[in-house]
Specification:
Layout lengths: L1 H25 L1 E2 L2 E2 L4 H29 L5 H26 L10 H15 L2 H15 L1
Length: 140
């Protein structure tokens, strides 16, 4: 079940990232797109990296499960990134959207709610990281 939730988190991150890219490209301030501002670019790049971390860890867990290999640690890592990275992506998207990011009629609101729901269903980032740490320590 966790890889499915992680895959759902991945789709959620991709959707939020697409909205972020579109909005920051279309929104102009001082006559230029806000995407051209260094701070906006850095925050968007961090969201992209988090999305790719969710993608990589999710596919790694799914592949190991599909191959019949032990995947306990990989699933824990995917759960962590789905919870932690998913939250970082939607928070960055809301931040870069400014006031429109919290508008309940704007689609980003749905991505934000979905990310929180996924995080809670997975048990949160910190508990996942603690379980992973205990597993690694036990196998060391």
């Amino acid at each position: 079940m966790p890889p499915r939730r992680s895959a759902l988190a991945l789709g959620n991150c991709v959707g939020a990232l697409e909205l972020l890219a579109s909005y920051t490209t279309d929104r102009h301030q001082f006559g230029v797109p806000i995407a051209s501002f260094q701070a906006v670019g850095h925050r968007a790049a961090d969201a992209y990296i988090d999305t790719e971390a969710v993608r990589l860890t999710t596919w790694q867990a799914i592949w190991r499960l599909d191959e019949g290999l032990a995947a306990g640690e990989e699933v824990a890592v995917a759960k962590y990134w789905a919870a932690y990275g998913g939250q970082r992506v939607v928070h960055a998207a809301v931040h870069l959207h400014g006031g429109v990011g919290v508008d309940r009629d704007y689609p980003l609101h749905r991505f934000f709610l979905a990310a929180k729901q996924i995080e809670l269903q997975l048990g949160g980032a910190t508990p996942s990281l603690l379980r992973l740490g205990r597993s690694i320590a036990a196998n060391a």
